[in-house]
Design a protein that fits this description.
By secondary structure, this protein is mostly helical. It contains eight helices and no strands. 41% of the residues are buried.
């Protein structure tokens, strides 16, 4: 196991001890789930708990969850989260788009990756070299 498992154990202890959970706590645990070999499903479960609670979700929350999906090869979930951010009026960032585009690249979904680049260009989010490298990688993996 990795450190993400230890982070989840500590989170469980916090819940059992009735310690107040805040955005920073959730973001740290979701971020721990994003590490290689981590648990993208647990990251999404934590995100869902946040959505049902009074804890505020932010760009970092979604960025970590999208990165966890990227590392888990879950491009559909990554795209869904980018859309949830837009619906919830949560600022999307270069990092959130890049992680979703990279997830599409890993899944061989070049069309979806290019749609995300297009969405990014139509928004106020500034693409980076990483954005275009991920999109090029997506096109490259199609053969």
């Amino acid at each position: 196991g990795g450190n993400w498992e230890k982070a989840l154990q500590l989170f469980s202890v916090m819940v059992q001890c009735n310690v107040r959970l805040d955005t920073v706590t959730f973001n740290a645990v979701i971020s721990a789930c994003e590490e290689k070999g981590g648990d993208w499903e647990k990251a999404l479960q934590l995100l869902n708990v946040m959505m049902r609670s009074i804890v505020e979700l932010d760009t970092v929350t979604f960025g970590s969850a999208i990165s966890a999906c990227e590392n888990g090869g879950e491009w559909e979930q990554a795209i869904r989260l980018v859309n949830v951010m837009a619906q919830g009026k949560i600022r999307r960032s270069t990092v959130t788009f890049n992680a979703a585009i990279s997830a599409c690249a890993q899944g061989g979904e070049w069309e979806r990756g290019l749609q995300l680049v297009s969405m990014m260009l139509q928004s106020t989010v500034q693409p980076s070299t990483i954005t275009f490298n991920a999109a090029i990688s997506a096109c490259e993996k199609t053969g």
